[in-house]
Amino acid sequence: MNDLKKIALLTSGGDAPGMNAAVRAVVRASVYYNTEVFGIYEGYKGLIEGNIRQLSVRSVNNILGNGGTVLRSSRSPEFRTEEGRKKAYSELKSRGIDGLVVIGGDGSFAGAHIFSKEFGLQVAGIPATIDNDIAGTDYSIGYDTASNVVVSCIDKIRDTALSHNRLFFVEVMGRDTGFIALRSGIASGAICIMMPERKTSVEELVALLRKGYRNKKSSSIVVVAEGNENGGAYELAKSVREKYNDYETKVTILGHLQRGGDPTCFDRVIASEMGVGAVEGLLNGNSGFMTAYQCGKIHEEPLETSYTQKKQLNENLVKIAQILSI
Ligand code: F6P
User: Fold this and answer.
1) Choice from 147, 149, 150, 175 to test ligand 1 binding pocket (greatest atom count within 8 A of CB)
2) Taking the chain (326 residues) in consecutive chunks of 10 residues, what is each chunk's mean pLDDT?
3) Domains of the chain with CATH codes
4) Is the alpha carbon torsion for 262, 128, 183, 252 positive or negative?
5) Helices (H), 14-81
6) Ligand 1 center to residue 87 CA distance, Å?
7) Residues with a CB atom less than 6 Å from ligand 1
């Protein structure tokens, strides 16, 4: 182990259920290894403003099962500037902090990596975003919980859709990607999953709906990722209505419901593994890595992977969704 004495941690970008479990793990692992640990409040913005407090084992009591982030989060345009990062570094330097753990997504990691190279600071990333769009890791913290929230909402929608023979367009999060849509769409039996990565035209969608109706489907659910190219759920429902009206059509936007709630067991466990892994990696003298989950194991993946590569959809799941929706 190297001579790192003080570690700070922050949560950045959109909050994700399980972030608190990761915060707890970083704090407790640091204390376990006799390293002082500091919480930075409100992400990079708080770092620039010096909103930093030392944490103890007891500071993270009873947060493991809570959604959101006790450290709070932000998106900081100032940290994108060299000036902002200089201010941020002086806040760390004045406290003698030489290691930083960033819990967030690819944008937060890109910032952390530049920061680390500019000031010779050791950094580790812990992937956390409900979108699960971070290249290099199969799962990011929050994705499992958000997908489960979506599935439980669609199950409820299905009850009422069935009772009235209706077609529902359910919009889920995923600004640029369809990971939530694909997983929750399969788990909830959607007839079609509209995702930015797989363009499905309105004509193709209408053909699928007609076929389903002919095959005696009494209700249908179309899951739409918010970043879908033919528009979100309202727009899509309008375009479909103009061409097709066997079913009465309704729209539900799940929105920020998906970001809240208690993390699942899976998210709590990977967050715990990643938190300990990040601290151990830093104490082993490593830097510029994220704790990635691949094939059931946590390993150190270069931070660059997260922001220089685009994560691809699982093609097998795309195929399965098509096969099962007949
Ligand atoms: O957390 C990821 C994400 O939920 C995206 O899917 C969504 O577009 C975005 O964040 C919305 O975030 P905010 O409400 O913070 O702008």
Assistant:
1) 175
2) 89 97 98 97 98 97 98 95 98 97 97 97 98 98 98 97 96 96 98 95 95 90 95 96 94 97 98 98 98 97 98 97 93
3) 6-142+263-308 (3.40.50.450), 145-259 (3.40.50.460)
4) positive
5) 19-32, 43-49
6) 27
7) 14, 129-131, 173-175, 226, 259
